[in-house]
Structure formats: C-alpha cells, structure tokens
Known about the structure:
By secondary structure, the protein is α/β, with parallel strands linked by helices. The protein has 12 helices and 20 strands.
Amino acid sequence: MPGRAEIEAQQLERLRTLISEIQGSNDFYTSRLKDAGIGSGNDIASLADFAQRMPFTTKMDLVWDREEFPPYGSNLTYPLETYARYCQSSGTTSVPLPWLDTRESWAAMLDCWDRVYEAADVSPSDVVFFAFSFGPFLGFWSAFDAATRRGNLAIPSGGLGSQARLQMMATNRATVLCCTPTYALRLGEVLAEQDASELGEIPLRKIIVAGEPGGSIPEVRQRIEALWPGARVFDHHGMTEVGPVTYETPQKPLSLSVIEEAYFAEILDRETEQEVQPGQRGELVLTTLTRTACPLLRYRTGDLVQKSWVESEDGRHHLCLEGGILGRVDEMVVIRGVNIYPTAIEKIIRGFPEVAEFQVTQTTRQSMAELEIAVEPQEGIALDSDLGSRIGKALHNAFALRIPVKLVAPESLPRFEFKSKRWVKVGEQ
C-alpha cells in the first residue's frame, strides 16, 4: 500500500527511541519491558514484533499504580521537578487520574493539535473561541495552547453562561468554535432564541468538536450545522491518557485519521486480540511515540472503531477510523439478546428534527436489562403528538425491540456543557 512502508519505518524509529528512553528510568514500564525481553529499542525488530511481545496496558493498571504510588503513580520517565503541566482525566469509566507532562511532552501534544487545526483549515487570522469550563481536563488546555502558539486570537470562556458566551463570540467576531457536540447543540439552541439585532453577527465558519462521538454521527452533525448556518462541523478525538489522537480529513468526512507520526495504533478483535481487517470493527489500542514523559505502551482505550484507510494528498495511505468513534466497548448493553450501543440509539433519535433533547434510562428487572426513553420535543410540538410512536417504530425497525418512548415537557431534561450524560442506569427493580 503506497506510503505505508515510510510511515511504519518512522513509527518504528520513534518507538525504539521511546523504549530506550524509558527503559531503566520509568519504573512503571522498566519491569514490563524486561519481562517482555525488551532491554532497549534495538531489541524491537518490527512493529509486529513489538505488538506480539509487549503486554497491554489497561485503565485498571493505571488506577492500581496510582493507588500504590500516590498521587501521580510510577509512570514518570524523568525527575518530578522537570514536570510542568498537570491534567486529570474526566473519570468517565473510572476515578479521575492525574497526568503530568514536561514542557517537551506538552509541546509534542501541541504538535498533534497543529495537525488538527491544519486539517480543519484554521488559519492564524481565525479567532478561536473555547466554550469550555477549563477545569483540569487535558483537551481544553492543549487545544487552547496550540491555538495561541499558532498565533490565533484564542478566547477562553470558563465560568460564563451560554448567553454571555454568545455575546462574547459576537463582540470578538469568532470564526472557530471548540466545544463538545452536545454543547454545540445547546449553544445553537440558545442562539436561536436571541434577538440577532441586539446580539450582533457571529461569523462562525468552523466548529471543532470532541469529547463524545456525536461529531461523526451524520444526524448530530446535520442538527448542529442547521443551528449554525454557514459553519461546518469538524470532528476530532483524543483522551487525557494519550493526548490528541485523530482528526477529520476533507478527503473522507465522518471518519477520523490517526496522527500516525505520534501514535502506533492497533485495532484488535476483542476475543482473539488479533488485528482486524479493513471494514471490520475492533478496540483501538494506542502506543504513544512522542509523549515520552508519561508514555503508554499498547494502551487499551476501550474505544470501538472500524478500520479503514484514507489517501492523503501525497498519495500515502493513513489509518482511518470509519465513522469516528462508534462507542465504548464497556458501554454495550444486551437488551433481550440484542447488543446495543448508546451511539446507535442517538443516531436514530437525532434523525428526528422535532427532538430537542432525550434521555435513556436503563433498568434491571429480574436480572434482565430494559430501556426507556424520555424525549423532549422542540418548541411547538404537542406532548400528545405522534413523535414518540414514530421514534418507537424506528427503534423497533433497527433493533427488533419494543422500547418505550415518552414525550416530556420542554426544558425538563438536563443540558450539558461538557460530555453528555444521557444514559442513566438505575438498580434492580
């Protein structure tokens, strides 16, 4: 395949450099590498050799390491006084985990964000607005720092409400918005309620979304772009543990290209733990190649993806995640024998433009999981309309299951600024 030999040669060189750097200086990985028979980077014959010999790193490995060596764990390659940045995972699937970076490793992540901005066609003249609370989550800070390093006017908006943010965007003529898909929807809804003559024009042309799968779900993207006429949604994904990982390319919308100069990515069958073929789904496993201060080797991300390829302008074929992040392998729920992911439910519900918001409640009755869905209709849609029955029919056609759908009063369901929590689990009933 064109260009793959060059890409993989660069990955192997960087992997060997990384291993030589952390062997003997990073307590977390020194013993693991030794047990795998890897004394230095030169012991790695190929990427396949590394994948065969090196064991996985899991989220629980990181949790236990921090419990044993509080507060930062033992996955630190350099003396503590050389670390300059503190971030913390969101705690979506476990307790929040702290992460430290040196200035060099932080700069390597900003290099990855450069790839995201370049692919999104963000120029130094763009005004980039960050609709985040700016807590310790890595994605906010790395995106902001990368924009300022590129010369963009970068505007933070932590601590502001939606109306105040819209006013700031209008006053400063923001052209790029960075936020989660959920908050892009919410901010667009609030915008629709404003008096345009009082607010002023917002010349937005690009919305970079991350934090949840919605950016690569066509129905969600269409809803966001309908709320923000003239702006195009651009998807990206990353995580605190590894940094910015993917970006959307114009050649293949609704899919995410891996930043392969910074990551060695595997897509593995969950049962066989072998690489899947193009078109097949598996779990994304990542090895960081440039974040040497707190590296991860063969980290099981828990992200469900579909393997594909995308050809760049120089003719090289890059690893691509068809449809973006399809879900989390630990989020799948079995309902009367049918495997269902939350993203599949959202894809169907967002196909109905009459829906303003929704919430899925998962209950357990007699050891069997069941789902109920509350739907908040758009303004002007009566609660006794047939919207609920039409959504229920679409769900039945997709899953061959009857899932109760009820309409609820406007503004009765929660709104979210960061990652949405539309899937609620309750105990045995």
